[in-house]
TrEMBL record:
UniProt-recorded Gene Ontology molecular function terms: acyltransferase activity; nucleotidyltransferase activity
TM ranges: none
Record-linked Gene3D superfamilies: Hexapeptide repeat proteins
UniProt-listed InterPro entries: GlmU-like, GMPPB_C, Trimer_LpxA-like_sf
Ranges for domain Mannose-1-phosphate guanyltransferase C-terminal: 117-231
Pfam assignment, any one: GMPPB_C
Protein name stated in the entry: Mannose-1-phosphate guanyltransferase C-terminal domain-containing protein
Length: 258
């Protein structure tokens, strides 16, 4: 069985994680995401507290230096230390990191009371908002938003994907510029806890996964309080209207689920 990645993702080669998708079915990168991140993500500097809430807001420079945020000067949203312009990520007081295999590119912001478990990689400009719960094996492209009280595990966000409010994203892939409406749930486990199978082009496909959420192609959108059942694949530019239950199965690009 072959289902083209082009039905879901454009410009896949622009993502740092693109190699995981080479010659793969759309859901297969989820099988290897944790190992890939463990192999590629460097450890945090020893100055970053692990296992306790960060006691004061910190600036983690692109070179790996850790500086108290209060020691920096800010002009036009740019940061300076001892007169020198620096780039890096901001870790706000109260955020909790449970391990060292976590990487933050520049302009990442981790807001208070978010919890992040390794392994995880956050690309430039990602926002990890107040109270988010990141349970490990998570990759984000640039300018991603993981919002207030949003829970994520074993998932990939391509650049500019947003789950800004009260979402659950389990074992899922969000394409470029996907937007999840408030309260969207990407369910990842059947009641029977059996392997997830799909029907694609009248062919039954065994995914080999007991836990699989949704694959949302580029520019997909979900309305508030929508639910995507385990094993839902939305082709690019598809919409799920507010309050709808969608899937399982494959939906062509441009589908509108009302």
């Amino acid at each position: 069985m072959n289902i083209s990645l082009d039905l879901f993702f454009e410009n896949l080669e622009n993502e740092k994680i693109a190699e995981l998708f080479k010659n793969a079915l759309p859901w297969e990168p989820l099988k290897f995401l944790k190992t890939y991140l463990l192999d590629t993500v460097p450890e945090l500097p020893k100055e970053i507290p692990i296992g306790i809430p960060i006691p004061e807001s910190l600036f983690l420079t692109s070179e790996g230096e850790v500086i108290p945020l209060k020691d920096l000067e800010i002009y036009n949203d740019e940061y300076y230390f001892k007169g020198e312009k620096i780039k890096g990520a901001i870790l706000k007081a109260g955020a909790l990191l449970t391990g060292k295999k976590i990487f933050f590119e520049e302009e990442v912001i981790v807001e208070p009371f978010s919890l992040i478990s390794p392994p995880a990689y956050f690309s430039k400009g990602t926002q990890i908002r107040h109270g988010s719960y990141i349970r490990g094996s998570v990759y984000t492209g640039e300018k991603v938003v993981i919002g207030h009280t949003t829970e994520v595990k074993n998932s990939i966000f391509f650049s500019s994907a947003k789950a800004s409010h009260f979402a659950y994203i389990g074992d899922s892939i969000l394409g470029n510029s996907v937007n999840l409406g408030a309260g969207t749930k990407l369910a990842n486990l059947k009641f029977s806890k059996t392997i997830i199978t799909l029907v694609i082009n009248n062919e039954i496909v065994n995914t080999g996964l007991k836990k699989m959420g949704a694959i949302l192609g580029d520019l997909c959108q979900t309305g508030c309080n929508s639910v995507l059942q385990p094993g839902t694949l939305l082709g690019k530019k598809s919409y799920v209207y507010p309050g709808k239950v969608c899937g399982p199965g494959y939906f062509l690009p441009g589908t509108k689920i009302k």
